[in-house]
Amino acid sequence: MEKLTNFINGKFVSPRSNQYLDVYEPATGQVYAQLADSNSDDINNAVESAQNAFENWSGLSVKERAVYLNKISDGLKARLDEFSEFESRDTGKPISLAKSVDIPRAISNFQFFADYGSSFQFESNLNNETAQNKIIRSPLGVVGCISPWNLPLYLFTWKIAPALIAGNTVVAKPSEITPLTACRLGEICQNVGLPNGVLNIVHGQGNISGDALVSHEKIKAISFTGGTTTGKVIAEKTASSFKKLSLEMGGKNPAIIFADCDYKKMLNTLVRSSFSNQGQICLCSSRILVEKSIYDKFKRDFVQRVSELKVGDPLNEGTQFGALTSQGHFDKVLDFIEIAKQEGGNVLTGGNSKKNNGRCETGWFVEPTIIEGLKNSCRTNQEEIFGPVVTLQYFESEKKAIQLANETEYGLSATIWTENKEKATRVSSQVDVGVIWVNCWLVRDLRTPFGGMKQSGLGREGGEDALRFFTEPKNICTIR
Ligand code: NDP
What we know:
- The chain is of the alpha/beta class.
- It has two domains: 2-249 and 456-479, Aldehyde Dehydrogenase, Chain A, domain 1 (3-Layer(aba) Sandwich), CATH 3.40.605; 253-447, 3-Layer(aba) Sandwich (Aldehyde Dehydrogenase, Chain A, domain 2).
- It is 41% helix and 23% strand.
- The chain has 15 helices and 23 strands.
- The chain has helices spanning 40-59, 62-78, 80-91, 95-119, 152-165, 180-192, 206-215, 228-239, 263-275, 292-307, 327-342, 379-382, 398-406, 421-430, 463-469, and strands spanning 2-4, 6-8, 11-13, 20-25, 30-36, 123-127, 131-139, 142-146, 169-173, 199-201, 219-225, 244-248, 253-257, 285-291, 346-349, 369-372, 389-395, 410-411, 413-417, 435-438, 453-454, 457-458, 471-479.
- A hairpin with a 3-residue loop joins strand 6 and strand 7.
- The longest helix is centred in the first third of the chain and has 25 residues, at 95-119.
- The radius of gyration is 23 Å and the shape is globular.
- The termini are far apart.
- The structure holds NADPH dihydro-nicotinamide-adenine-dinucleotide phosphate.
- The site of NADPH dihydro-nicotinamide-adenine-dinucleotide phosphate has 32 residues, from helix 7 and helix 8.
């Protein structure tokens, strides 16, 4: 069975302990690889190699660093099909999704930051009659990037690319659940000749290798995407050392549907925004709030469309809905459906694990599930399920819609459906989330700030925000 090892100082190396973890294929529930179970020795090794690489890497011009990022992007592009298959096998997501979203986005993360780096002001001047102020933004040094399992390469590279273009060297830890594409990224770095130690990829368990990375005194910043509980642990761990922190965490995103929306467009998009990647996207709509006058029609149509989704082997091109990414998550989602029933929820479609024949007989599939009849305050509507479970509620006034949308500790994203532009602006300004999509979903311009409010996040990623995070400003004031 293949052993997925760490990528440190430009080489693939076994973990110091020589211990390995099982890696599962969600569609079959079977082990298909072994993963380095790294500990603080491996992290120390990786940090040392990143430190050694820092002087030369940060001494290159942005343009010179961009050449490497573009080469990595091209290397990924050349292996799009292969990487899409890796991502689908490792996560359980439909291969069509990996091919159209995950891997293309990883390609564009490198490309985007390679370009954006040259437009970012690493140096600026603010002069007045008495003095000249020169503001220099320098890389931080060695930084840590920690990413989750739902969009593995997409989110991994979303952190690594800005960190590198800004001149930092990186120690990155992907999720132990979905390590395959991160591991293969190391091969691409080797092939394009990225200088040794600039990017180090260390695998293993969050509370061991992740913790060692977060706690390492030489790590200047942590960029983390994952659950709010883990984010809190990381914030506590780093508080006394004043490490820079960027936290992208959970969500409980409302979709607010007004009767005056473009109904067809809304319905098509809502099926995607609720169930893409089996609902395992932090930006998925999970609480669907519908104006009462169209509630019954919407319910009928939405249930019909969702029950038609093609659930099955993620490696089949025609599959629209695959497996949940781990056994633990599969159990958690099924538990939540039981909780919803106990809370008085009425399951309109789905509600069970999905049985398949053949190769996927023992995989972790849950039917796309729609539930109604629950109060907004119940656990189902307040806790992040992060799976293929959405709830329906209705509202009779704009004020009530906003109240329901905001009645959660999360504040990541929302979608608003209305053809009335003033209403869209009014509601957008009152919903407390970091990202709002009006009449669309997941439309991204990588220059825009991305992140959440309340328990969903601290700081923003994307364009200028990411480069500001990965640099430290210094003001040099010279008297005239
Ligand atoms: P986790 O918080 O469990 O894990 C995220 C990453 O942190 C993994 O690499 C994990 O490693 C690592 N980790 C776990 N414990 C520690 C620790 N003590 N110290 C350092 N690192 C640690 O999240 P999931 O992987 O389960 O991802 C799902 C969550 O991510 C959801 O809540 C989702 O909303 C959120 N998310 C947020 C996004 C956003 O942009 N706001 C985007 C995508 C997801 P390991 O896997 O080995 O445990």
